Amino acid sequence: GNSVTQMEGPVTLSEEAFLTINCTYTATGYPSLFWYVQYPGEGLQLLLKATKADDKGSNKGFEATYRKETTSFHLEKGSVQVSDSAVYFCALRGATNKLIFGTGTLLAVQP
Amino acid sequence: EAGVVQSPRYKIIEKKQPVAFWCNPISGHNTLYWYRQNLGQGPELLIRYENEEAVDDSQLPKDRFSAERLKGVDSTLKIQPAELGDSAVYLCASSLDPQRASYNEQFFGPGTRLTVL
């Protein structure tokens, strides 16, 4: 069945550091891929998405590229801020229209 | 515009007691989802409604869990009786009619954190 694997946290970075959170997936067909973010005390919010191979999703300085050859959708940001501290979830949506989430990666950015 | 509203935000009960969670989706959103998020895990779908019809409840433990969405607007998820393993965050989400677009973003509420003692 469909599944998502993302790197375990926590990831601790200093402000202005480069961020990468790895995400790989297993799916039949051509899923859509997403990154969601959960700030402390809040619900999940869609951060970015990509619906087909080689698409790049971007938002708030974050980027992720849909790589079909490596079945990956790694999240990157060139310069993180303290306000980026949150839990990040990689997810896919397959033919059944159901969202499948990874386990989440906690990012802590220190000033 | 108001987001997805859930109540209560926190609930502590003893095992074998009943508990109910309430969700009010974004106005105009036809599709409503209930997820369970265990500690350190991603959300897992329990049930999906399109209007008042449950179209996917394959992951709902029907021996103790029930849900309803009367009038196709707000929804209630109930557990009776609760077990220790039910401790989790219960998330509600809503989206527009999925038949009208290739993808409709799901908007999530803040969740209800349930602790069963």
Offer a concise description of the structure:
The complex is a heterodimer of chains A (111) and B (117). By secondary structure, chain A is an all-beta fold. Chain A is built from no helices and 12 strands.
Task: Identify the notable features of this structure and list them briefly.
heterodimer, A: 111 residues, 4-stranded antiparallel beta sheet, 0% helix, 51% strand, B: mainly beta, 7-stranded mixed beta sheet, 11 strands
Shape of chain A: globular
Approximate strand percentage of chain A: over 45%
Q: What is the average of the pLDDT values of chain A?
A: 94
Distance between the termini of chain B: 37 Å
By DSSP (H or I, 4+ residues per run), the number of helices of chain B equals 0
**SSE order of chain B, as H and E?**
EEEEEEEEEEE
General description of the model:
- The complex is a heterodimer of chains A (111) and B (117).
- With 111 residues, chain A is mostly beta strands.
- Chain A has no helices and twelve strands.
- In chain A, the strands form three sheets. In chain A, strands 2, 5, 6, 10, 11 and 12 form a six-stranded mixed β-sheet that branches. In chain A, strands 3-9-8-7 form a four-stranded antiparallel β-sheet, with no helix packed on it.
- Chain A starts with a strand and ends with a strand.
- In chain A, 35% of the residues are buried.
- The model of chain A has no long low-confidence stretch (mean pLDDT 94).
- By secondary structure, chain B is mainly beta.
- Chain B has no helices and eleven strands.
- In chain B, 36% of the residues are buried.
- The model of chain B has no long low-confidence stretch (mean pLDDT 91).
- At the A-B interface, β6 and β10 of A face β5 and β10 of B.
